[in-house]
């Protein structure tokens, strides 16, 4: 993927990921085809920080029902990025 903004789709903010920010770990939704190297380069280019580690996981969408109609939420991939000590992403502050 050429553009780093195509790799990081959006931040993934939950109660758990907000607690992880204290340990310099930030979570993003990324395309299913993105790999760890692309994710690392995208975070470093966009936010101008030093990335120590990238962990990825694929989350399968849940099956949901509305009466007799059955649907499925989309699958997605999330990346947990650990930054070097002293580095911060200001984008997440106050979220």
Automatic annotation (TrEMBL):
NCBIfam families noted in UniProt: PRK05738.1-3, PRK05738.2-4, PRK05738.3-2
Organism encoding this protein: Sporomusa acidovorans (strain ATCC 49682 / DSM 3132 / Mol)
Coiled coil: none
Task of the protein: One of the early assembly proteins it binds 23S rRNA. One of the proteins that surrounds the polypeptide exit tunnel on the outside of the ribosome. Forms the main docking site for trigger factor binding to the ribosome.
SUPFAM superfamilies from the UniProt entry: Ribosomal proteins S24e, L23 and L15e
Keywords: Ribonucleoprotein, Ribosomal protein, RNA-binding, rRNA-binding
Name assigned to this protein: Large ribosomal subunit protein uL23
Family label: Belongs to the universal ribosomal protein uL23 family.
Entry-linked InterPro entries: Nucleotide-bd_a/b_plait_sf, Ribosomal_uL23-like, Ribosomal_uL23/eL15/eS24_sf, Ribosomal_uL23_CS
Keyword Ribonucleoprotein: yes
Subunit structure: Part of the 50S ribosomal subunit. Contacts protein L29, and trigger factor when it is bound to the ribosome.
GO cellular component terms, A-Z: ribosome
